[in-house]
Design brief:
30% of the residues lie in helices and 34% in strands. The protein has six helices and 20 strands. Strands 2-11-14-13-12-15 form a six-stranded antiparallel β-barrel. Strands 3-10-8-5 form a four-stranded antiparallel beta sheet, with no helix packed on it. Strands 7-6-4-9 form a four-stranded antiparallel beta sheet, with no helix packed on it. The N terminus is likely disordered.
């Protein structure tokens, strides 16, 4: 009978420099598992992985820090459009023609026939004065005229008498051969005749004077009824029945009459800095506080050459014609006018902030190489703003803007331009190398380190 042969234990391969038999004997004696090889240890690979992750994180952190320290630009696209230059001025609305109605005759107001806002016609009686004294003056003038007429008749009779006496004396002298009457009597008779003729002329002049006085009193009586000089609307009334009206060198204003409220005039005061842009026939719009959301059209009719100085500010009175067919506007309203001084169509426009912009050096560039990790990471050459050849151009009114021509939008380039008019937000570009579609820089932002 064959006895089975027991299996033979095969020893694992031994590592160089290690006593396999000793380890096996100890493990067998202590009943412990055999320790794995060094390259199979998990702690070692975990440490290696942690070190790799730490290095990668530091690399990304340093790259992000460098990117955030680089300048970030705010840009706008250059485009073509329309530009309007406006001038703003304040003023008040006035009637095209207003009439101050007073009285040329003194007296007491007997009756007032109209009130404020009444429509009146030319010749309509507005105020009636008490005419009792005026009628008495007319009676006195007529009496004086009658007296002067009687005086004329008396002087005419005296002239006839003196003429007859002179004729008789001349006849006597002719018949007597000049012996009688004496020369003295003849001279007295001639003087008497001349005096009578002068008295007659004076009497006739007195008649003319009396007629003129009578006519004046008649005119005063007719002016006791104050009438409207033209069609219009009563704006103000300063008289009531019973008031005494005293005619003087400066007549008291009883009424203010506006001829036509459908046509008004806007009086504005333009600052001396803007008056050079304002001309006759320019269009404008204005608003009033009563209708803040409505814009009324107007047109300049006159720009004064004489200046007005208020609080050391020099302004020039400018008149604008206003249509008020719906009568929503009233005289005296305060208005803010916007005058269209200049218009440009289909021109190259850039923001005013682009003309004021100048790039700054990127913050944090000097600190980019302070860490060991960053020193080991290769970086490209530092980018700096470069200038174009056009910057050296020296022309009147030439300025510059900064653009981003690169695809990465990191390098700013200066472009020379010639600026035109500006509305305060956009500026017209009349010359230079700037083209539509370019990205002009308006601001620069740098993140905090």
């Amino acid at each position: 009978m064959n006895t089975p042969t027991p299996p033979v234990a095969v020893a694992p391969p031994t590592e160089p420099g290690r006593d396999t038999e000793t380890d096996t004997d100890l493990s067998t004696l202590l009943d412990e598992p055999v320790p794995p090889a060094w390259y199979r240890r998990r702690a070692l690979w975990a440490a290696v992985l942690l070190l790799a992750l730490t290095a990668t994180g530091l690399w990304f952190w340093q790259a992000r820090k460098s990117a955030s320290a680089a300048p970030a630009y705010v840009t706008e696209v250059v485009a073509r459009g329309n530009l309007t230059l406006t001038v703003t001025a304040n003023g008040t609305l006035q009637p095209t023609r207003s009439i101050n109605i007073g009285s040329e005759t003194s007296g007491t107001v007997l009756k007032v026939n109209v009130d404020v806002n009444d429509q009146v016609k030319k010749g309509q009686v507005l105020v009636e004065l008490d005419t009792a004294k005026l009628r008495d003056q007319i009676l006195l003038s007529r009496a004086a005229l009658a007296v002067t007429n009687a005086k004329v008749a008396q002087t005419v009779a005296t002239v006839k008498e003196a003429t007859a006496s002179m004729t008789r004396l001349d006849e006597v002298a002719r018949l007597s051969g000049g012996k009688v009457p004496s020369k003295t009597e003849l001279d007295i008779a001639h003087a008497t005749l001349e005096r009578a003729i002068a008295d007659a002329a004076s009497a006739r002049a007195s008649v003319d004077e009396a007629k003129a006085t009578l006519s004046t009193n008649g005119i005063n009586l007719s002016k006791a009824s104050i009438t409207a000089p033209s069609d219009g609307v009563i704006l103000t009334r300063n008289v009531d029945p019973g008031n005494a009206v005293a005619a003087s060198l400066q007549a008291v204003t009883l009424f203010t009459l506006a001829e036509d409220l459908a046509q008004l005039r806007l009086q504005v005061y333009v600052d001396e800095a803007d008056v050079g842009s304002v001309k006759v026939d320019q269009e404008a719009t204005f608003t009033v506080s009563a209708y803040p959301s409505r814009k009324y059209p107007a047109r300049i009719t006159r720009v004064a050459f004489g200046s007005t100085i208020t609080d050391n500010v020099v302004t020039y009175l400018t008149l604008l014609a206003v249509e008020n067919t719906d009568l929503t506007l009233r005289p005296g309203m305060t208005a803010t006018a916007t005058i269209t001084a200049t218009q440009r169509k289909d021109v190259l426009l850039v923001p005013n902030t682009a003309l004021r912009f100048t790039p700054r050096a990127a913050a944090g560039t000097a600190a980019a190489g302070t860490s060991i990790v960053s020193s080991l990471i290769p970086r490209g050459p530092a980018r700096t703003a470069r200038k174009s050849a056009a910057l050296g151009a020296s022309t009147a009114g030439a300025r510059q803007v900064w653009v981003l021509p690169d695809a990465d939008h990191s390098t700013a380039v200066a472009v020379a331009v010639t600026a035109g008019i500006s509305d305060g937000h956009l500026t017209e570009i009349t010359g230079g190398d700037l083209k539509a579609g370019m990205q002009v820089i308006t601001d620069q932002k740098t993140a905090a380190p």
